[in-house]
Amino acid sequence: MLEGITLFPLFLSLRVALTATLFGLIIGLPIAYYLNRSNSKLADIIDTVITLPIVLPPTVLGYYLLILLGRQSSIGKFLEERFDITIVFTPTGAVIAALIVSIPLLIKSARAAFAGIDTTLLNAARVLGRSEFNIFLTIIIPLAWRGIAAGITLAFARALGDFGATLMVAGSIPNETMTMPIAIYDALLAGNSELANILVFIMTAVSLSLLYIINRLEKRITKGPG
Q1: For residue 104, is it within any domain?
Q2: Is residue 108 part of a domain?
């Protein structure tokens, strides 16, 4: 029997990915809707900033997060002194790192879905006296659900497999911040290729299973029973 096998990194990775995807959905949908509707310079700036995590190396992104949220930063000092909250080298840091690297995929997908909606339907709803919030919830979201579901899938997969940014912000503390990708990396560094192979197999099997289930649920939701 191999020593050192623990399912904590897997459970932590799943928890981090689910939490990051949930927050990404709450934050990302309004941003995607705004970017789709606005042609202002502010929208262009926001779009550029959101796209940045896709093109930046994960370690560079993690470094920026450390500078922004570290204990010596203004935000880090404020949170620690006022609320006794520390972000770096904690599971919270892992969630934030996963959120930053995954939310652009959700926003891009949702924005494309919003752009495909026939505006005459929205204008008709406005003529009937519907509020913008009501239109967003009852018309836009149902019509754009396929693209939103695709974005959720991509964001979850990206958050689940993040390594560079999470390692920089959360570290690799056993039974605290060590996610599955980091556990695989640590096993390789320790020269335990057998453990690394097992962890890779588990990660691959879980990822494939979750993506298959999500895709099946997406098809049922968008196509209905049958």
Answers
A1: yes
A2: yes
